[in-house]
Write a structure and sequence with these properties.
Blueprint: E1 9-13, H1 21-31, E2 35-39, H2 42-47, H3 50-57, E3 60-61, H4 69-83, E4 87-92, H5 98-101, H6 111-134, E5 138-148, H7 162-184, E6 187-193, H8 207-217, H9 225-236, E7 247-250, H10 261-272
Parallel strand pairs: 1-2, 1-4, 2-3, 4-5, 5-6, 6-7
Helix pairs in contact: 1-3, 1-9, 4-6, 6-7
């Protein structure tokens, strides 16, 4: 079905290059008729290729650090002027851990780095919604989505303090979702995506092994970035107007699977040497 988002305006945080989930979301929302503002930090704009995506999607690019309230206020005000109206959807696709990038063991993490992880990967989501809420920037019945990972609920080796950040992110979605829903019917959800080989994802040690394991454990296989973008389009559309405050799994069935035959076979072969 085409034109699911025709006439809708949206802001997408976090696209860096064509491996980013946010990049695919921009392409898919544009294809469904939406008008877009793309945003990332000034440093990321210099490192990535967002101008190429903006040209493809006929989108405006506005630099903003999502941890900075002044930047976010400027982003929202400029977006409202650009659209000539309110914002229908927002994607938060932001995450970074200095501890993970520096391969610092979880049991010996740097706490200043941990605070930075929380600010970038979770508290920024609260700041984004705070600015949208206080500027009355969201259209009635709008939709806000953030990307998360199941490590916010289960223990995974090498994911480090990003697990705590994802848990906080999901809690923020519920708490702010209740307030946004009462105010103007805006939905707030998180999408727990399969391991995805993005630029950020590959910064996690052992990511390729995690990817292969999840693929073996998922009856439908890992969901790709493009698959995720399709799912997020449905969450931005009017077909999900009563879905809010949920952590929605988009992982090929990984989250509901105890063990698969091929995984068991592989484990037994390894144990038997």
């Amino acid at each position: 079905m085409n034109d699911l988002l025709k006439g809708k305006n949206g802001i997408i945080f976090g696209a860096l290059n064509d491996r980013s989930i946010a990049w695919h979301v921009a392409q898919h929302t544009h294809a469904q008729g939406a008008s877009l503002v793309l945003t990332n930090t000034p440093v990321a704009l210099r490192m990535g290729s967002l101008d190429t995506l903006a040209e493809e999607c006929n989108a405006k690019v506005i630099a903003a650090d999502a941890t900075n309230i002044n930047d976010l206020n400027n982003l929202v005000q400029e977006s409202l002027r650009h659209f000539g109206g309110k914002i229908d959807f927002v994607l938060h696709s932001i995450g970074q851990s200095p501890n993970v990038r520096k391969k610092i063991p979880y049991e010996d993490i740097n706490y200043q780095f941990m605070q930075r992880t929380m600010d970038i990967s979770a508290i920024s989501f609260h700041k984004v919604m705070n600015v949208l809420y206080n500027n009355d920037a969201m259209a009635d019945g709008g939709s806000i989505v953030a990307l998360t990972y199941i490590a916010g609920e289960r223990s995974f080796p090498l994911y480090g303090d990003m697990a705590e950040a994802k848990a906080m992110l999901e809690s923020i979605a519920r708490s702010f979702g209740a307030r946004f829903g009462r105010k103007c019917g805006v939905r707030v959800n998180t999408v727990s995506q399969s391991p995805t080989l993005t630029t950020a994802g590959e910064g996690i040690a052992g990511m390729e092994k995690m990817y292969r394991y999840a693929d073996m454990m998922s009856p439908l296989g890992n969901a790709s970035a493009s698959d995720c973008a399709d799912y997020i389009v449905t969450l931005f559309s009017d077909f999900t107007r009563k879905v809010t405050m949920q952590n929605l799994y988009h992982d090929g069935g990984f989250s509901a699977t105890g063990l698969t035959e091929n995984t068991l076979d592989a484990l037994c072969k390894g144990l038997n040497g």
